[in-house]
Amino acid sequence: MPLRALEGFVNSLLTMMDTSLQSPGYSCLCKRSKTLDVQYRKSSGKGFIDIVVDSTGLKVYGNGEWHARKHRATKRRTWRKLHLAIDATSHDIVGAELSMVNVSDGEALADLNIDRVTGDGAYDTRSCCEEVAAKKAIMRAPPRDNAQYWEEGHPRNNAVFMMHQIGLTQWKVNSGYHLRSFAETAMYRFKQLMGDKLKSRQFNSQHTETMIKAKAINKMTGLGMPKYQQQS
């Protein structure tokens, strides 16, 4: 919620609690949001760490509809790119990064402790593969349609070979690639619960806002996730 609305909401809660405390003012919240370090990650625990990654856009609005109609101006819309890394077992967000739209999808992989990562075709790049190889992890991303073999002995060559032999669809089934749907589900969960646009105007504040939302999502998933049982 916007910071002014948050200030009023917190003050109303404190009033209901019959305390003498008062929420920090809007100016204080605005300044603190630029430098606040939000710890949203949970411990990955022990064992095999399997994550799925994806990215999506979050809207940052410029001038509103009224301004566009009154002055016949084109409404300026800006986007930020949200990168999420999801633990395939617990569904927790273990990596989150907010960037400009021109930043590559490998950003969320930089500081993660992983054993295997699954992503879509956007992660089939040398930079992503090198980042994963440096962690001695396994990269599972579908090669592009016109994919060529890289240098001899590169792990990606196995995926390209199998794609040529059995086709991309069957490769996805055999490799377990469809686990990546957990990332799409996490994106849907994020946007449905937290919205698809950012309230803050400055990038540092937008980053803090996103990390707070990621922490809230992890709190919710920690309380419980739906369990599905196939009916005969």
Uncertain segments? none
- If you average the pLDDT, what whole number results? 83
How many helix segments? 8
Beta fraction of the residues? 15-25%
Largest sheet: 5 strands, mixed
Helical percentage: 25-40%
Gyration radius, rounded: 21 Å
Task: Supply the helix-strand structural class.
Answer: alpha/beta
SSE topology string: HHEHEEEHEHHHH
* Shape category: elongated
Strand order across the biggest sheet? Answer: 3-2-1-4-5
Head-to-tail CA distance between termini: 44 Å
Q: What is the total tally of β strands?
A: 5
Question: Explain this structure to me?
Answer:
By secondary structure, the chain is an alpha/beta fold. Helices cover 39% and strands 16% of the residues. The protein has 8 helices and 5 strands. Strands 3-2-1-4-5 form a 5-stranded mixed β-sheet, with helices on both faces. A hairpin with a 5-residue loop joins strand 2 and strand 3. The radius of gyration is 21 Å and the shape is elongated. The termini are far apart. The mean pLDDT is 83. This is Transposase IS4-like domain-containing protein. GO terms for molecular function: DNA binding; transposase activity. InterPro entries: Tn903_transposase, Transposase_11, Transposase_Tn903. Residues 51-218 form the Transposase IS4-like domain.
